[in-house]
Amino acid sequence: MQLIVVSGLSGAGKSVGLRVFEDLGFYCIDNLPAHLLPHLLADADIAAGGRYERLAVGVDARAESADIKAFPDTIAEVKARGVSVTTLFLEADTDVILRRYSETRRAHPLGDTQTALGEAIQRERSVLEPIANIADVVLDTSHLNVHELREAIRHRLGPDRGARLRVLFRSFGFKYGVPDDVDYMFDVRCLPNPHWQPELKGLTGQDQAIADYLQASPLCADMQSSIIGFLDRWLPEFEQQDRSYVTVGIGCTGGRHRSVYLAEQLAAHYRDRYPEVLVRHSELT
């Protein structure tokens, strides 16, 4: 039996997460009191037809405080029964959640007439700490749209994730901050910057003119070769350890030219080697 627990902050994408697992064939239950998990699994174990062999359950701040505090013990009890359990915790920056609530005009589950929305969000972070602290996968959705969130969850927790290593190349701009979910990070700000060429400034690393400009630089070729050499050495080690995914961050100043170009080149290089190679450009959305 396989159990996925989907938790996280309100407004971070838990409903989307549960729908992803529903699409993958999981039987999904939202807002289940955590203390009922062992009872649910006991009943599911004897159910006929294997309908409940893959379960996804939403647990969040609407649960009783005692349930959330006891969550680590509950999960330990479930694992002791031989159930494969993965906890996914979704989070986002406070300002992003504030914006999402402003757009949807929904009420926060911990809010009331005496509590400001920002205070409710901070309270929720504190309440959910017992779950966040033991989560197997913590995913920051601040810069993900619905489609990117779906792909990120599939990338990390899809049912065939153990088949072979999946590799995600993510470009970003250092001026906007380093992504939280990268396993390896390469700084390519030392390469010639197309931003300073007036005819190239408005383009991106996906445009052929940028590719021509960077391919003319021996320094860029050396950087690409060095990164490939490093990944060729260490990605197989992760694969040997049954690691399901690796995220490689490529950063330049603004995240629009050099990092985008190299992320695309690296992805093209590794697509014949790994079954799923993804590319995400943080600053092009």
Strand order in the sheet with the most strands: 2-3-1-4-5
Give the class-level CATH name of the largest domain: Alpha Beta
- Strand percentage, roughly? 15-25%
Structural classification = alpha/beta
Largest sheet: 5 strands, parallel
Strands, total number: 9
Q: What is the typical, i.e. mean, pLDDT?
A: 88
Defining traits:
single chain, 285 residues, alpha/beta, Rossmann fold, 2 domains, 5-stranded parallel beta sheet, 4-stranded parallel beta sheet, 11 helices, 9 strands
Can you give a write-up of this model?
It is a single chain. By secondary structure, the chain is α/β, with parallel strands linked by helices. It has 2 domains: 2-157, 3-Layer(aba) Sandwich (Rossmann fold); 166-284, no CATH class. It is 41% helix and 19% strand. The protein contains 11 helices and 9 strands. The strands form 2 sheets. Strands 2-3-1-4-5 form a 5-stranded parallel beta sheet, with helices on both faces. Strands 7-8-6-9 form a 4-stranded parallel beta sheet, with helices on one face. The chain is globular.
